[in-house]
Design a protein that fits this description.
The protein has 323 residues and is of the alpha/beta class. The chain has a single domain, classed as UDP-N-acetylmuramoyl-L-alanine:D-glutamate ligase (3-Layer(aba) Sandwich), CATH 3.40.1190. It is built from 10 helices and 13 strands. Strand 10 and strand 11 form a beta hairpin. The two termini are 33 Å apart. Helix 3 packs across helix 9, helix 3 packs across helix 10 and helix 4 packs across helix 5. An 8-stranded mixed beta sheet has the order 4-3-2-5-1-6-7-8, with helices on both faces. Strands 9-10-11 form a 3-stranded antiparallel beta sheet. A two-stranded antiparallel ribbon has the order 12-13.
């Protein structure tokens, strides 16, 4: 069995990952239709613990690092990312294992009657490919009874389908100009969309940002009464050693000093590692049991292909999906 039957159904919905442009006017768009489907399904998005990751660059890497460390510490962890490299099952994983074709098919079969009911009511917007996949990920994680779900935003943040959750930790990776036709034509406007994931009750971890993005994030945190930890200011990091196989990173903050090795090359991954460690320490400070050695081991085992990936050293052959 493969994923083709699920993909055929999903392909009947608009997929803005492949269709040029974006189909909503943000001024009038909302997530009511997604919330309605989730309500009919019993609110599967309400996990015991949620880490929500937005940003222009590095959000998938940070999400993968956090999830790998959580799994290594014994917490059953769901990871939702997009897009996929080889097959759609990569988008939703539990403890590093992709959802199987059969599991995804079962999730769709269970959700489809409720989905069709929502689609049949004119008052609800028609769901998109990504929105349906996001709902299926929530259903799958609930069925697998995950302890923690780590969610990567698909696009923006404020109006993204993942932004139906109540996060424990919000992470915002570096923001830059991207998808300007949808998110806005300045870094400040884009930062407002990304900061839309910040909700009262969460703690926010921000990677180093351009000044205009940093100001937006700080203002959003003040407005919503949440604590902000800034990597590069509240948390410092340095690279102790590096080669093509990865790098050793030293991270220091109010939680003390952490030394980790990640099997990912590139200076940007050191920054991502510092951001991930900070998010993990926030979870630990909130009462989640995270052994320091297990956490470091999980970061050392992270797999995230297609990001400055070394395929061979002789001759040197790299694979990178540069943004």
């Amino acid at each position: 069995m493969d994923y083709s039957s699920v993909e055929r159904y999903l392909d009947s919905f608009v997929n803005y990952e492949v269709v040029p442009g974006f189909g909503f006017a943000s001024a009038g768009y909302d997530l009511d239709h997604v919330n309605e489907l989730l309500r009919r399904l019993g609110d599967p998005h309400r996990a015991p613990c949620t880490v929500h990751v937005a940003g222009s660059k590095g959000k998938g890497s940070v999400a993968a690092m956090v999830a790998s460390a959580l799994s290594a510490c014994g917490h059953k962890t769901g990871l939702y990312t997009s897009p996929h490299l080889l097959h759609i099952g990569e988008r939703m994983r539990v403890d590093g294992v992709s959802v199987s074709p059969r599991e995804l098919q079962v999730a769709l079969q269970s959700a489809r009657p409720h989905l069709e009911a929502v689609l049949a009511e004119p008052r609800w917007r028609r769901l998109t490919y990504f929105e349906i996949l996001t709902v299926l990920a929530f259903c799958y994680f609930r069925d697998r009874q995950v302890d923690v779900q780590v969610l990567e935003v698909g696009l923006g943040g404020r109006l993204d389908a993942t932004n139906v959750v109540t996060p424990d930790v919000c992470v915002i990776t570096p923001i830059s100009l991207e998808h300007t036709a949808v998110l806005g034509d300045t870094v400040e406007k884009i930062a407002r969309e990304k900061a839309g994931i910040i909700k009262p009750g969460a703690i926010v971890v921000s990677a180093p940002q351009p000044p205009e993005a940093g100001r937006v994030i700080e203002a959003a945190c003040r407005d919503r009464g949440v604590e902000l930890l800034r990597v590069g200011e509240d948390v410092c990091w340095s690279v102790a050693s590096h080669d093509l196989s990865g790098q050793s990173v030293r991270v220091e903050g109010s939680f003390g000093e952490r030394r980790v090795r990640i099997p990912l090359a590139g200076s940007f991954q050191a920054e991502n590692a510092a951001t991930a460690v900070t998010a993990l320490e926030v979870l630990r400070g909130g009462g989640l049991c995270l052994d320091e050695k297990c956490m470091a081991g999980g970061l050392g085992d992270v797999e995230w292909p297609g990001r400055f990936q070394v395929l061979t050293e002789h001759p040197l052959l790299l694979l990178d999906g540069a943004h």
